[in-house]
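> @MW can you paste both from yesterday?
MW: sure, first one:
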Amino acid sequence: MNPDASALRRMVSLLEIPYRHYFDVSVSGLETLPAAGPALLAGNHSGAINSPDMLMLFVAWYRHMGFEMPLHALAHDAFFKIPGLGDALREIGATPANPEAAGEILRRGNFLLVYPGGDKDAFKPFGARNRVNFHGRRGFLKLAVSEGAPVIPVCARGGHETLFIISSGRGLARRLGLGELFRFKQFPLAFSLPWGLTPGPFMPYIPFPIHIRLRFGEPIAFHERPGADPEDPAFIERCHDELASVMQRMINEQSERHKIRMVRDSIARI
């Protein structure tokens, strides 16, 4: 299902105010995006259930690429089981996460956004907020290689500072059986507005007004590498290590630029 252009326009219009004023989003690397797909965008997942940096990424995408070049995204199955929400998500290009749907999106020549770390990444503790970790997921790389799609690293900083996750609560989630019930592997304890201390993964919150920084990296054509084989574990592991290293470097560089910006803004106020 292709996204509904009118629904996309409404979404982007609603998100323009937080994009420009609340999160003061800065974006770099848009010039590296290819003019046409297929391509798989792989990002670091932040901000728990709200995922504000993902929403801001959608705004940045359509501002640059236009509504004629839709961005599809894989989303957690649980969201599509909520009455009304599933249809709304499909209207803006979201699809329940499964290999068959993802492969079909790429075979149609589209752009597909994935967050390989899933809920483990989205609910990571605050201290790990800028650490790239795909949590053992390799399927997205096998998919990109098998479908002949380059991988575009896209990194965000700031989204995981819109709340404070104290603990990911993996052990508690396991004891409560959330993995079997909802495919959630975490039961985090967080501090967020307006609730204060918040247990569990399902509570939306009012994000702190944190500057969000997005960066798109150069596409990586793993499928064109010598010996490229989606069924070769050693090859896929090399792809994983390279992508994780590239994304970690991108996030670290964003941190350095953020420090420079803070110093510059402080000097300007003197």
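MW: second:
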Amino acid sequence: MWAWAVDLTPSGVLLAGTWGGSPFWPGVLGRNNLQTGTGWEFPPLPGPPGGEVTTFAVAKKPGPTGHTMFAGSWDRGLFRSDDSGGSWINVNLPTSQPVRSVSLSANYETDRTFYVVTWGTGIYRSFDGGATWGQLNAGLADHRIGSVAMSPSYASDGLVYAGSDSEGVLRWHPTDNRWHTVNSGMPNTRVMSIAVSPDFANDRRVLAATWGGGVAVSDNRGDSWGAPNGGLNSLYTRFVTLSPSFPADGQAYVGTTAGAYRSNDRGSSWGTLGDPHDDVGTVDVAGLAVTPGSPRTVFASTGGRGVWQYTEVGAWPRWPWSRSTASCKALRP
């Protein structure tokens, strides 16, 4: 089963998106409430079955009926849930191109602002929860965009980062309303994923997962980059995310074509999570989601082997999916 994306809400709802192709699980979204222990549910997405659920984004604070969250798909558009993934509606994104990544403002509950990037028509922004859109492609030479991450201080600095298939890291400048490449020292210009520190206003740290150059790290808002990569057995990295306590513990996580890794020093060096010779240590990890608190649990979406979980020490146990014949691509807590 290909699990493309995983995500986790602050209230403990785990989401997983799959790659279709199976008659048993044709590109659907799984939901598991870890607090109630009810197991996996599969709320239907609007429209015909099929395709891939490739990305999630979750608001930090709940609304009256639960957390608002968005799910992007390869060929079915963008969806929104206002009840922590219990039900979904279509969002009228003005393109039919694949949705690759979604990023919500840290203050989404009040400002309703978020960004969506696509594979073919560039970058879109909404100030009203997806009711209306603006296309923000000024400065882009390549409209194949794979990732987007808003600054946690967006309300004051207006900064947004995007990862391009060929242009490296792009940074949105609100002063001139266009994208600028910020690639000084970047080891590779094919960027798969971007993570911005929760303490960005003070530490100015950004991490970028690249395809062939490992993980690039900047501590000056992207003005320059380094890529130490010590401990990585594969420089083909798909997804990077940060501990909810990153300012205090400095822990970052990356999924590669050869397993999942953790850094305890803010991305300067890496160590394998679990046994490097077990099932997860040798497979393609497409997404990661990390719980807050201790002991910390990491969920990994993998190529062909579903979703796994890892709790601090020991090997990766198989996470029990009620259907096991499909692919899962996106994962987040």
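> thanks! Helices lie at 108-111, 154-157, 200-203, 246-249.
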